[in-house]
Each structure stands twice: as C-alpha cells, then as structure tokens.
Amino acid sequence: MDQALFRLLMMRMRGGFRLRLMQLTSLRGLLFFLAFFGIIWLLVATSGASSDMGAMSDAALNRQTLSAQISTFMPISMLAMSLLTVALTTGPTFHFSPAEINFLYTGPFHRRDLIIYKFSAYVAGATLSSALIAVLAQGQTGSALSAFFASLLTIIFVQLNSAVIVMAAQTLEGSRLARIRYPVIVLFFAAAAASIVYAWTVPDRSLFDLLSAFRHSWIGTIILIPYIVFAELFVSSSLPQQAFWACIALLINTALLRAIIVLDARTTDRALSENARASNRWERVKQGGSYWATQRAEVRSIRRSPTWGGLGPIAWRQALNVARNSLKVVVVFVGIATCAGPLVAAVGIPLSDPRVLTVIYTFFGFILPRTLVCDFRGDLSRMEIYKTLPIAPWRICAGQLVVQVLVTYVIALPLIVSIIVFEKGSVTSGALVLAAFALPLIVLIYTVENTIHLLFPKKLVPMGRADFEFLGRSLVEFIAKTIVVLAAAAASAAVGYFTLTAFGTSLALPVLASWITLTLIVLLTVVMMQYAFRRFAMAETVD
Amino acid sequence: MITVTNFSKQYKGFTAVKDLSFSVEPGQILGLLGPNGAGKTTTLRTLCGIIPPTSGRLLIAGHDIAEAPIAAKQNIGYIPDDPRLFDTMTVWEHLAFTAAAYKVADFEESAEALLMSFELTHKRDTLVHNLSRGMRQKVAIACAFLHDPKVILFDEPLTGLDPQGIRGIKQAIRERAQAGAAIIISSHLLSLFEDLCTHIMVLNLGECRLFGTMGSVLSEFGQNDDSSALEEAYFTITQNKEMDQA
User: Which residues span the membrane (chain B) (predicted)?
Assistant: First the structure.
C-alpha cells in the first residue's frame, strides 16, 4: 500500500480510538460502555455456567451436535447471503466517503492502492468485530484464538465475495448474461418455497432435513465448496486441521481480492456514481430515512393534507415518509411475517415455545423499531418545525405515533394469521384476541421508544463499528422497554385473572378487563411522551 | 405586535440573553445585529416557542408565548437559518402541510401565488432533498408566509440565495411589512439592514447595546468615507465592549 495511504489509515484509526476514549470521559458514555460490556460478560458467563452444569459427556455431545449443525447449515446460509447480494446488487463494493473521493481520487494514487487502503480499513474493523465474536463463540470452537481467526477470515470472505459478485454483475450489465439474473432468482425462490411446502405437508420431514440432505448431496457439495471451507474452519478440532483450513481460506480471500482489483478497472465510473448514491443514502439514514428510499427527483404531489384537529398533518407527513422512504422495507417485513407461520410449522416448533416468542418479541421490540422509523426518532433535526407549530403537544405526539403503529400492526396481522392458519389446534377466537392485544402492545412499544428518545435524544446510526456507547445504549433501551412491556402485560394479566376468579364463567369478561387495563397503561405512557415532547428543548439537549 | 419585557435565557449557568426589553409594532422591521454568540438566534428561537425563556414575558399579538403558545404560534412565521424540510415531501406538499397545520382553509390560490413569486412553480412536484440550499430557503419562506402571519422572524434570510433571489426576498419582506406584519431579521449583512430595517438593535454577549430607529442610529454615528454609519455603529459598540472586558 502507498505510504501516504498507510499513514492516513493509521491516523484514522488513532482518531477513532481517541473518539472512543472521549466517549468514556463523559458519565453517560462510561455508563453505556460499562452496560454494553456488562451484558456481554453476563452472556458469556451464563453460557459458560450452563455448559458447566451438564455432565462432561453432555457438553462434548452438545459440541459435537453443534459442530455438525455448523458444518451443515453455515455453508447454506452463506450461499443464501450471496444470492441475496446478487438479487439486490446495489451500492458500491467498497464505499468511499465524499471526503475520501475529494482527497484520494484526486491524489497521486493508483486505484489498486485505494482498493487495498479500503480493504485494510475493512480488515481493521473486522478484527474488532471478530474479537467480540470470539468472546461469545469460544465455547463452541474450543479456544478464543481459533474463534477469532475463523470469524476474521469468514467476515473478510463475506465482504470480498459480495464485492466480487456485485462487480461481476456490474461488468456484465447490458450483456445477455445479465438478463438471466432475475429468472435465476425467481427459480431459486420458487425452489425454496416448494421445499417449505414439501416440508410442511410431509409430517416426518422437516425443512432442516431437506437442507441437510441438500448439503450432503454431491451437487450440494460442489455448489457449496468455497463456503464449506469456512464452516470447516469453525468446527476444526485440532491445530493442524485448523491451520490447513485457514490456509485454504486465506488463499480464497487473496484470490477474491485479486479479482476485485481486476474487475475494478472495468467498473470505475459505476463505482463513482454508486459511491455518491450511497453517501446520499447514508446521509438520509442519519436523518432517520431509509436506505431504500426513493431515488426519484419528482413525484406527483398530494394536493391536500387532512387536518383532524392538528393530528392530521403530522400523520400525513409520516404516511408520505413511509410511502416514499420505507415501502420496500414494509413489503419485505410483511413477506417475512407471512412466511413465519409456515416456517415455524415446517421446523416443527409450537408457537408457545419460548424461543419462538423471544424471536417474535425481538423482531417487534428491537429489529423493527430500528429498521422502520417514521416517528420522532427520525425527526431529530426537524424538531424546530414541530416546536413552532400551533398544535397542542399531545396531538403532535399522537400524530407521530399513528403511522408508525399502523404500519407495525399491518406487519403483525399477517404474522398472527399465518401462525394461526399453520399452528395445529389453534382457533379463530385466539387470533382475534391476539390481534386485539397486539395493537395496544405496539402503541406501548413505540410510546416508550419515543419517550426515551425525547428525554435522551440520540443519533440513529453508530459512529463507526466500535461505537460502544451506541451499542450499550441500544441494549439498555431494549431492556428498559422490555421491563415496561412485561410490567404492563403482568398488570393486564393480573386484572384478567382477578376478574376470572371474581366473576368468571366465560373468558370474555376477563379478556376485556385485561385489554382495558393494558389500554389505560398505554394512555398513561402517551401522557408521559407528551411531557417528554414539551420538555424537549433543541438547544439544551442536542450537542 | 411583539412585546418583549425583561427576557433572559440561561443554559446551564451560561447567560445567553440578559434582561432584554423591546417592542416591534405592525409595519416595523427590526434588525438584530451582533457578533456570533450575541444571543440573536436564542432571542428568535424563544420568540417562536422553540426554547422556553428562563424569565421575562414575550408577547406575540397579545399572546404570551410561554402561557398561550398555540395562540401565539398561530400568528408567527419563522424562517430558520438552515431550513430543515421533510425530505420525502414535495414543495407543494410542504405548503399543503403548513395549510393543514395552521388551518388555512382555501390555500391553493395563495400557495400558487407564493410559488410564482418565489419562482418555484416549476419545482412544485420536486422532492425537496433535490433542491439547492437557496431553493430550500425559498420553500421555507413560502411556507412561513402561507398563513399570512402577523409576526415574521427571519434568521439569516439571504444565506444561499442568488442575486435574483435576494432581490425577491427583500421585496417580499417590504411587502409583508407594508401589509402590517411586524418583522424581525437577524443577520450579519449590514447592507440588508440599511436596505430594509426601520429599527436596529445591537446585541453583544446577550445584552442590548443599542436600540433605536434606523434614522437615529445613522444620525448618531454619521458616515465616513470608509464605512457606512451602521458599520461604524456596530464596530464602535462591539469593540468598545471587548476593550472594556480586556
């Protein structure tokens, strides 16, 4: 690499490190940092304790089973990720920021040097991620060092592999080969859907059985060869074995990097435009927008906004925001929600299983609120506008919540329907109760989310890969939100139980009492949110 | 129309504005002048209800901004120095949003007229994130004018505008004042004040150093060959204070 670029890389790393240290100098930064590492330590300690509790033979057996699962399913997951990259084929392969384009593209550097500089920056970031993964995965791989190297080589492979696929697709653009991209994707998804349906209809064959059969077939082995190398790296039990697979992994990564440098010469113009597009997108993500927002310059204007006593214009603004910013995300989430029922049935896990409930709650309580933002959280830079409007604060708050809640509810409903349709022994009345309770629960999640945001405003995206303050804060927020949701659910259930024991002959009255209790708690949190909005003062709370 | 009495604003021990009192009547244009950190933007942001005052009374069309914020805000048009628009909405939709928020019933005709006067008609269906800074500034001003406010507050109104745009905005400000609006402009452009303002207030370190009509300021500080009377007044007042402090 060029000496100047190497120096730049070192200075940027030093700058990043200094920034993290500066975060630690504030009480808030220090607390979130400690919270993040406290939770990580807790997870490691818990997993260590659970493996210690079992007999040694059980632990060995568990590790063997896990190794078999990694060996079988990791290559398939990596292939799926690669296919997804082909399907989306968007964004630059190596993202150069506007500042880098201004300084480095105009500087006396070869393109190859710039690619290596960017790759080195990526490796530095991946090293940090791998160190974190190694702490969590050391129990499964035998030692922290082996987990670290396996993670590092795999993360680098994922990046390089995606880059080569995208660059190859860009090189082939306009040629006949490019036309087969979408038919191939459709074929792949049709095969996946057929497998799920087959697994669902045949009682003694689950989806995992089918995937396992594919992985161990000769055709599966040929297709998955490069991915199998990285799975084997994770499950190697001895040092020589590990060294062998690491060497092959290193060779694959070197070959991919070489391919990128060769392909880059053919895609320079495209890379520049993609970089500009990606920079614009990230700027919008920082403002609360979606990465997949419309790229159009002009659209047909909606002539009028509803008033609805002041609530209308705010809700209308957020509705336009979703329609033009996050519609693709909503469609994807509705698709995922619809597939949840058949998937759970194919896997053979009942809805009442704690693992399923945890996944559903994590999806609605953590993933969705972070991916689909159409409330105060995306409007931090526009709070001035809301503050100057002649609209009562509670109406502004309600207006902000309406669209976010409705969109989430639209995603929750297909999930409920699909689970009820595919779950054995479920009844329609159960679905109705779930649908009725889902609405106040969703309002509760977003009211708490917005209240926390208004009281302690924060940026929406982390400052780089190792923003421990951001990560710690996200985890603490999630835990706080979960406590509020659990407390509300417990209070609601207690009222229901009391009604059942006091009056109950049928379940209708306790369910109604429970729902009313939950709704009242939700209304209380809306009052809290209104207080937080009134208290919010831009100049005093935003750095 | 605007009456400020003993207004002070403190941020965690730091006094941004100290004991400020003034009034602006309908038709008057007050120029807020002062170096960076003088308290100009804090005064404007408090007047339009973005930040609460620490003490004092701020009346907008007879309504206290702290006690009756909704009634007061109904009469305000505020144009910030860096207009943050909704990037997924078109120019027209911003006007429609403003009309609904301020309950302007038949806004189409006024909106069309504003688009025409700010040369935005051909940008009606453009998503605002595709507009230049100057264009975005014009959209913000059009939105602020839509509900025909009695009080208009401008924070650096000419930033990012081309000469044609500057002339258009100056003309619009004059017309609004003639129609009876009370206007406050905060800027560092002394020529803008000389062109437009009827009154001048010089702030420094959160305190009012000079408040009077443009005529009285010009006559007091006169004019020499090198600089205008306002420039003379500005540097005399702000540098005297700095020398006192030194």
Answer: none
B74 touches A at CB < 8 Å: yes
Summarize pLDDT for B192-237 with one digit per residue, the tens.
888 899 999 999 888 988 898 988 887 877 666 556 777 877 888 7
Residues of chain B contacting A325 with CB distance shorter than 8 Å: 88
3-state class (DSSP) for residue B36: coil
A297:B86 CB<8 A:
no
Give the nearest partner residue to B96 out of A302, A314, A540, using CB atoms.
Answer: A302
Please report, in angstroms and rounded to a whole number, the separation of the first and last CA atoms in chain A: 38
Tokens 């007042």: give the residue.
B237
Alpha-helical runs (H) found in B147-228? 163-178, 190-196, 214-221
In whole angstroms, what is the distance from residue B116 CA to residue A167 CA? 46
The pTM for the full model equals 0.77
| Angstroms from B137 CA to nearest CA on chain A | 14
**pLDDT digits 0-9 by tens, A8-46:** 888 888 877 787 777 777 777 777 777 777 777 776 666
- The nearest alpha carbon in chain A to B104 belongs to A307
Distance, CA of A324 to CA of A321 (rounded, Å): 5
Nearest CA among B162, B172, B176 for reference residue B115 = B172
CB proximity A284 to B under 8 Å: yes
Q: How many CB pairs under 8 A join A and B?
A: 110
Within chain B, all domains assigned CATH 3.40.50.300 are found at 2-75+149-245
Closest A-chain CA to B85: A382
B2-75+149-245: CATH topology is Rossmann fold (3.40.50)
Beta bridge mates, A298:
B126
Residue A56's pLDDT band (cuts 50, 70, 90): very low
Q: Pick from A214, A210, A190: which is nearest to A200 by CA?
A: A210
